[in-house]
Amino acid sequence: AGGLAVGRVDRVEYYRQEVKSQPVRLAPRPVFLAGREELLAELDIRLSVGDSPWPRSVALCGLAGAGKTSVAVEYAHRHLTDVGVAWQFAAEDPAVLAAEFGELAAQLGARDMLDPRNPVASVHGVLAAFPAEWLLVFDNVPDWASVQEFLPPAGRGRVLITSQSSLWAPGHVVEVPVLDTGVAADFLVSRTGDLDRQAAADLACELGGLPLALEQAAA
Question: What 3-state class would DSSP assign to 50?
């Protein structure tokens, strides 16, 4: 399958950077990528092109280790100059997610302008009137119900969700499949410098084409 990639993203250590004097909180950009261009181009079309209503959202769905987070983070880094806010949330636990909204509210100055007791509503209010585009990444979301109240209802923004669940609104899902054996073998050869392509193909098959497993094996 085309449009795939291998990349390892550390989902614990984030970096913060000021872009256009606005907050950025993203995992480090994936170092090793292979064949993700089609998938990233599709995200560009869905999130940036056309006259569909804002905010625009896409759920990247697939198996654990398929590289969903790598795709989302790579897309975010590529579009940092297009947005005024780029923020990644660890969305497995709603309580942790709510606390992270408090951090974003503080960065936006929302606590001084709106209800300090409700950082989610405060952030939504700021983003609804934000003068520039913004981008939010909700990483490793269990299901729609767990994240629904956190998704901004208004504003000129882009929302990327990564999830093992495929139960999302029709037209908003992009499947992230495992790597084709040939792509995976090419990655292993390039990553390791070992030119035994048959051995690389055998290992790729044994690992099921999962990008995370391939990266760990190559390392």
Answer: coil
Q: Is 21 left (phi over 0), alpha (psi -120 to 50) or beta?
A: left
Give 118-127 contacts, CB < 8 A, sequence gap 24+. Answer: 120/149, 120/150, 123/152, 124/152, 124/153, 124/154, 124/155, 127/85, 127/152, 127/154, 127/155, 127/157
CA gap 83, 68 in Å, rounded? 21
- Amino acid identity at 213: A
The string of pLDDT tens digits covering residues 4-27 is 334 434 333 444 443 345 789 999
pLDDT tens for residues 190-214? 777 777 778 767 676 676 567 677 7
Confidence label for 159 from pLDDT (cuts 50, 70 and 90): very high
Task: Evaluate whether 43 touches 174 at the Cβ level (below 8 Å).
Answer: yes
- Beta pairing class for 56-61 and 157-163: parallel
Yes or no: say if 135 and 163 are a contact pair by the CB < 8 Å rule: no
Cβ count within 10 A of residue 207: 19
Count of CA atoms in the C-beta half-sphere (13 A) of 154: 9
Q: Is the pTM of this model over 0.70?
A: yes
